[in-house]
Each structure stands twice: as structure tokens, then as C-alpha cells.
What we know:
By secondary structure, the chain is α/β, with parallel strands linked by helices. It has 2 domains: about 10-185, Ribonuclease H-like superfamily/Ribonuclease H (Nucleotidyltransferase, domain 5); about 200-250, no CATH class. It has helices spanning about 55-60, 65-70, 75-85, 95-110, 125-130, 135-145, 155-170, 180-185, 220-225, 225-235, 240-250; strands at about 10-15, 25-35, 40-45, 90, 120-125, 200, 205-210. Strand 2 (about 25-35) and strand 3 form a beta hairpin. The termini are far apart.
Amino acid sequence: MNLNLKNPIAFFDLETTGINTVSDRIVELSILKINPNGSEESLTMRLNPEMTIPDNVIEIHGITNEDVADKPTFKEVAKKVAGFIEGCDLAGFNCNKFDIPLLAEEFLRADRDVSLKKRKVVDVQVIFHKMEQRTLSAAYKFYCSKELVGAHGAEADTRATYEILKAQIEHYDKLENDLGFLAEFSSHTKNADFAGRIVYNKDNIEVFNFGKYKGRSVEEILAKDLGYYGWMMKGDFPLHTKKVLTEIKMRGFGQ
């Protein structure tokens, strides 16, 4: 079967130096772009993260510091990556919580303003967990009746994710072959920022999703307690969270 697409969709996977979206970096990136006519384009590259890859992480994905020592940095390829996914909706495995927030951070660090929030995003892991509660390798075996050879390699994981999504749509009658439906179904909350520190409530108002002001309007709190803004801007929050917070602050002050 083919996905019912209005826009191209970019399936992507990242191998990184760790799991902290604020401080860790990409060491391998793979994107599989599916066009509305079913044709495919792919982009896979290894990157110098400009930091040491910990030994315990190397044991997972097998990419050593020597493997990426002579590779370009993300900043050097940011324009190429942005161009490749321009106009695309996005999909991945656990992409809502990890891959998209980290990719957004890398673009911001590279001083490239790429708006990922405007894209429809399908998280294949969320669909899988809602339906079956398992891992990527188990999902591939369950839906596609195949063993995932090369797991934890970005290219193998990316293609497996694409095949799993198509199989999920065929497997479950309640799933629609529509990117809008799949994006909504595969999200847990409607986030204003990728990390989910700020979310939209039922009235479509941005509210804090953590801490002492959880559930309270961001704009309302910033008007009453501007020190909270300063605390967050100095704190260990993702750049994208700080960007969204600043946009709400500027909007509230009519700037």
C-alpha cells in the first residue's frame, strides 16, 4: 500500500551522544523522504558532534569518536538538511519526545530558523505503544514479520519505521490513511514547545506543564511573576522552550 499524502513525509532517525535534548548532539542522521507519488529520496550522514561520545553510548549504536572525527558538524550541513525536509511532514519512532526536540535544538544552535511546529508529525512509537506496548525490533517483527537487522543504525531504523507505519494502517481498521489523523493519534498532548514544558489546554491557551505553575496560563504568570521568566531563561531548559516562552512574553507585552 501507499501512504495517502498531500505533502512529502520525511521519516527520520538520529543516533546521538546521549538522551539529553539540551546537551547531547547528533552523530548520525538518516532521512527517508516519501513523495505523494510514492517515489523515495534518502539522505544519510554521520556528523562530528564536537563532543566525546561516551563508551556506554558507543556500545549501543557502534559509532566511535574516530568514526566521526573527520565528519562535518551539524552547523555545516544544516542548510542541506533543512532544504531536504522543506515542505515535508515528519515521522519517526519516539520522535515527539526525542528526535524532533533534539533536531530543533541543533537547528537553533546552527542559527537556522526552521519551523518544525508547522509540520504534521506522526510518531510511530506512540501508535505502537497505544496498540501493542513493545519496542522497535518487536514492532518490526510483529507488523512486518521480519527481523530488524542493523537495529540502532539510523538508516535501518528509519526504513523499518516507514514499513511499520504502512503495516499499522493496514492492520488496524481504526487508523486512517491520513497524515492529519495519524499526527493527532500519535501525540499525547498538544505541545507549544517540543519538550512539552508548555502545552495548549482545552481552550487552546498555552499553559505550563510542570512545576508550581502547572496548568496555569503562561501569559498570565509572566504578567504577574516576570522573575519566573528569568529563572527559566537561565535554567537548563531547551532553546526551543526558551524561544516559545519569549514569544509568549513579547506577545503579552504587545511587542
